[in-house]
Amino acid sequence: MFSRLLGAHRRPFSSLSEQEILALAVSSEEDDARIYRAYADGLRDAFPHSAAVFEEMAEEEDGHRAALIEAHRERFGERIPLIRREHVRGYYDRKPDWLVRPLGLDKVRSQAEQMEEQAHRFYVEAAKRTEDAGIRKLLGDLAIAEKRHESLAHRLSEKHLGEDERAEEEKTERKQFILTYVQPGLAGLMDGSVSTLAPIFAAAFATGDTWQTFLVGLAASIGAGISMGFTEVASDDGVISGRGSPIRRGLATGIMTTVGGLGHALPYLIPHFWVATIIAFIIVFIELWAIAWIQNRYMETPWSRATFQVVLGGALVFAAGMLIGNA
What we know:
2 domains; two-stranded parallel sheet; mainly alpha; 1% strand
């Protein structure tokens, strides 16, 4: 196992023959074309214009592969050795598309640029290790082509994406971001900030003990985070609603619920009761206004309604906690 981890079963790039370099280039171009087509498939429903960009990039890779195969046929014959990226020590990796989902536009465009830059470096180094004039010329030409292709995604985007199409896709991407992250995270932040007010301040005014209050707040925050996270995961698989991965939504909800509760629980690590309580009051005020701002910024809720809902709800829960704690 350790020898495998250390790359003992891989060949160093410097040991490859000209035939093996060509074979590696062929398999790499095949893999890149598959990845670009997978990107296109993953983007087609939500971003059809960007899908066309990656379809054309895949066709470019097909052209490179055909030129490499023809060079191998002329120099070494019909049989191409089976050599792939994972067989060569230090060779760059490619992430299959299922590891980088959901396929956000910025993510796949950045990945495409990185792929082309890595391919350029490979062809530059490969050309240095060949003595056949024809193969060296081909590899050099492909290095130049890949260097040009670093901006291929941008150039093809200009071809396929006009201002209207780009605005449409950016709007779709923003909507998906809100559904998958902002909306669940906001629900968690509201629940964590508001629902934990009563137990935390009830414990504070009932005991006057900052450490016990902190423990109550910690338990309430973590418990609420776990509960809200699992509830979000179980509520909707995202397939029909289009809200995205339930795991991502659950993490967003659970983490923000915990953060919302811990915000006004952490001050009670301060041993002085009134200092801790005043700081907790200030944090609660900041939390409630942050929630109102997020509602206005991402959910397009009018300031007046967002403020009324959040401040009134928080005030009622806070008052309940104080009354119970002083009972």
